[in-house]
Amino acid sequence: MQQSSRVRRFAVALVMIGAFSAAYALGRSDERSGRDLTPVPAFAQEAGDGLKRKTYYPNTEELAPNEMRVISLGTGMPNQRKSQASACWLVELGNGDKFLFDLGTGSVANLSVLEIPYDLVNKAFIGHLHSDHVGDFAAWFIGGWVGNRQRPPRIWGPDGPADHPNWGTQYYVERQVESYAWDIDGRSGRLPTAGGGIEVNEFPHDRFSVVYEEDGVKISAWPAVHIMAGPVSFSLEWNGRKFVFSSDTYPNQWFIEHGKNADIVIHETFGTIRQNIDLQGWAPENSAMVSARVHTPPAAAGKVFSMVEPRMAIAYHFFNDTDTWQEMYDEIRSTYSGPLSLAKDLMVWNVTDEGVTVRDVVAQEAVWPAVSPYGSAPPDAADREELPPWLVDGIQPMEDIIKGYYERQGVAEFYEQQIPRK
Ligand SMILES: [Zn+2]
Ligand SMILES: [Zn+2]
Asked: What are phi and psi of 401, to 5 degrees?
């Protein structure tokens, strides 16, 4: 039964692939709200402007029609800490469109504080399949489903080399879904079934290619140099704006070529060799290899920034602490003197013609998921797996209590149909 349910759900997802243009039309919050798009002043950083709001309160600022907003949802390392989740970035556009880049472990909790419906953060682009870049896949895919998502989300990522298709995104997503068979089969028919499907889009890892082109948004990918073949970096271009994200990479010529003319360039840089010896506990040989060969050292990231000259350079992928930032800053400044942000989680950058501002998000941690713009479909009993008789036999009889509970909670009409039956 579980197998058949999974096959049925995949079929749903495949059917849905062709129907997404309609979803996009519904996904534009500005059109839905019908509100005036006059920009809220976002330039709190301007000199002498101390009275303007300096912090970003989620869901209080409409984007101007040509404005881009970038929010850091994960800026840390593969090892977990509360103050910095692993890699994840949200890009929001003035047309209402939203895109996630990487889904690193712990990042979806940061996404939640923005209180955006999961149906509107349903497009994720994965640079490579390290857990610190895709480890929150299930939190986004299944957690978002429980969090009111009504439609299958969409994910893009690189394929694997011909001799290693198991290094590709399709392989990863299919095995993730398979491994959650018990979870997904149990929720199907209890949650809106379509929300448990997923659309996977693989693209070549070994060349430049346009991987997404819808509603005036173009996303491109090109090879990143990171341990083995497979990883990529991305650009997003829309309405004259350009966002570039390295995911993980060593300095490389493709990034310098395709990273030019960008408003925002996010490039990874790793904590210094000494930091990873003294604070991370690594042996010197390991630290040198990981900090300066697997990843980009801060002075080399600065050199990349100098070569691509963004309106705002953002360095991420290091533990940005009181006792580390100064060394990172000095290393980057040894090779780069332009606009620079050292990323922490829940920073926000607004991009307009006038400039690029950087502020902090005010985060309410105790949030509930936002309602979907598509409503909330009732579950389809045909998709539901039921308890086997031997487990029904094990239920402690207390129907008088349960019936009263249905009544007190205002859902008495569902009581009869939901009594477990053998
Ligand atoms: Zn990596
Ligand atoms: Zn990484």
From this structure: -70, -45
- Give one DSSP letter per residue of 81-105, joined into a string: -SS--SSEEEEEETTS-EEEE---T
For 140-184, the pLDDT digits (tens) are 999 999 999 999 999 999 999 999 999 999 999 999 999 999 999
Angle between helices 325-333 and 298-308 (to 10 degrees): 40
204 CA from centroid of ligand 2 (Å): 20
**Residue 247 CA, ligand 2 centroid: distance in Å:** 7
pLDDT of amino acid 127: 98
User: Ion ligand 2 — residues with CB under 5 Å?
Assistant: 132, 248
- Ligand 2 centroid, distance to 84 Cα (angstroms): 13
The position carrying tokens 């430049």 is: 208
Exposure class string for 132-168: b at 16+ Cβ within 10 A, else e: bbbbbbbbbbbbbbebbbbbbbbbbbbbbeeeeeebb
CA of 288 to the centre of ligand 1 (A): 16
How far, in Å, is the centroid of ligand 1 from the Cα of 34? 42
pLDDT for the residue 422: 86
Name the nearest CA neighbour of 259 among 240, 279, 235.
235
In degrees, to the nearest 5, what angle opens at C-alpha 261 toward C-alphas 130 and 232?
20
Separation of 239 CA from ligand 2 center, angstroms?
Answer: 30
**Cα 27 to averaged position of ligand 1 atoms, centre (Å):** 32
Question: Which residues, at least 6 apart from 39, have a Cβ–Cβ distance to it below 8 Å?
Answer: 62, 63, 64, 67, 352
Contacts of 54 (CB under 8 A, 6+ apart): 44, 45, 359
Can you list the domains of the chain with their CATH numbers? 23-361 (3.60.15.10), 387-418 (no CATH)
